[in-house]
Amino acid sequence: MSTATHLINTLVEELAQKATSLSTHDLLLVSAATLIATAVTVVVRTGGDRKATQWTAEDGTVLSRPPARNGWIPWLGVALQYGKNPDAFQRKCSETFGDIFSLRIGGKRFILITDPFTIPNVYKMTKTLSFSPLADQVTVNAFGATKASPNKNVNAAMHTQYARYLSGESLRSMSESFASHLSTVLWDECKDRSSQELSDGWEIDLYSFTRWVIYAASAKATYGDTFDTKSTYDDFVTFDKHFPILAAGAPSILVPEGRAARKRLIAYLATLRNSTMQNQAPIATARDEVFDRFEFGDNDRGAWTLAFLWATQGNSTPTVFWYYAYALTHGNLFSALTSEVNQAITPTTTPSSNPFSVAVDIPTLASLPRFNATFSETLRMASSTFSIRVALEDVRIKHGSNGHEYLVKKGEWIVISTRFIHTDAGIFERSADFVDDRFLDVVEEVEAGVNAESNTPTTPATTATPTRTDSAKDIARTATTTAKPTIKKPTAKKFSKDGKPVRHHLLPFGGGASLCPGRHFASFEIKLFAAMMMYFFDVEIVGGKNSKDEKSEKNGKEGDDVGDVDEGVSLPEMDMTRAGFGVLPPVDDLRVRIKLKGHVVERMAA
Q1: Domain span at residue 475?
Q2: Closest CA to 113 of 504, 568, 453
Q3: With contact defined as beta carbons under 8 Å apart, do 303 and 510 qualify?
Q4: Which one, of 66, 124, 39, 76, lies nearest residue 413 by Cα?
Q5: Are residues 130 and 193 in the same domain?
Q6: pTM, to two decimals
Q7: CA angle at residue 355 from 339 to 314, to 5 degrees?
Q8: pLDDT tens digit string along 84-140?
Q9: Within a domain: residue 502?
Q10: Both 187 and 121 in a single domain?
Q11: pLDDT digit string (tens) for 242-294?
């Protein structure tokens, strides 16, 4: 056996042993692991880093190929180094090569865009850069579809339904249903507690508690009252745990638990029909009609339903977790947010067997300044989404800052690492820290009538006082002069880099053609859960793992720091093995004590 073959075999064995703890990019390697040893003799050695190359095209344009970090291991490239800490690796590459560079990972070339001004240029190229190949691959690998699309028009039909039923009246109806189910699930968690627990409170693992409550409420809001949340929940958790390695197309031998859980979920979800669901969301009805129109088989029907179910759950739980973790560890922020939330939630006036039944003013909730600013900052800190495009042909991408043009060859993948943008110190001051008012709207005084949509009362200035008394003319002029009335106008805070405004400074839901169609419902369920917990419960941290001080001693490791927190508080690290798939969950759970507020106890006793 050659030295190279032996090395590859050793790496494959190591990957197989550590499959469940690998990062997203390590997992891209596993799918071909069993073939590497025999194929190594025909793999061309990639040979380390490569500087940018330039030449003049026939039209006189100077073109460049992005500089490359290839690594010295055939096929693997830099996957192992990248997988250890994607944030730190990207930052180092950007410092070395500039803000457009390529990485060789698992036999593919990924071109990373870290310049915020180049992002719009990528998103505009919808005819030559496509998200569909990746979406099709994930549908098969992660969700178990037999093939990407039973019909080439399926994706178009689905997106038509998303536009119609994940906005407007249908979205409002789905949101109200979620609120109703959420109050029921929260009541179920409390109604059988002992009188001592109701009086003194009880401890929960915040992430686990949040995941169950959101799953139970969201699944029923989407697929109806009869959805069996209890029998499917454990399988869903197992599937989600193995999601990255499944998405990478790993051999079944490496993920037996994940595949078994997925199989059971698909079997159940395939039974959901418009004829069997009750009070389901309009989007669920519309999707079932698409399945019928394109003659989906049971497996594909269940797999595509699993994809949508996961999409409504995958990012909500970790976002709520970090929202609470930051709110509880930054001075009086939790108290301030609770005060705002009380403006949007009121108890129902009609008698109810559920003390958690409340009326939620959705427009008010969406307009709470500090509450929503904290939501945006939480997404900036914790989200890690890869906005990916595949080149359908050789294309040129113009650098948004310096105007240079880069050649991207057919089949190469372009990756916009949104987390790199979110942590760019050139855009955000104290980018590594959680700053709760970072996205707070700027309030400006403008002349009345400038913003006709503002509902802020007009407050005229007081009449000017004369400063001279020796002139009757002056006195008369001054006495009758009144400043023009002004209003206070909230304006979204703008961000810039190098003096230029940055349009795409917050991208938790991706962008362009791959912008998440369910982002409005996801945002609502996150905000509503956070708000209702604040309205019903007092919450305090009991314990956690991996404090900030402990992390600072870990060999200077970067990229997984949760930001500054109150002195003496311990928060878990972010799980970087999920980099690229959305909001990063915590490595460990966080133990908190929740206690019913007085007004809830009074309603329970009534």
Answers
A1: 442-491
A2: 504
A3: no
A4: 66
A5: no
A6: 0.82
A7: 70
A8: 888 889 999 999 999 999 999 888 889 999 999 999 999 999 999 999 888 888 999
A9: no
A10: no
A11: 999 999 888 888 899 999 999 999 999 999 999 889 999 999 999 999 999 99
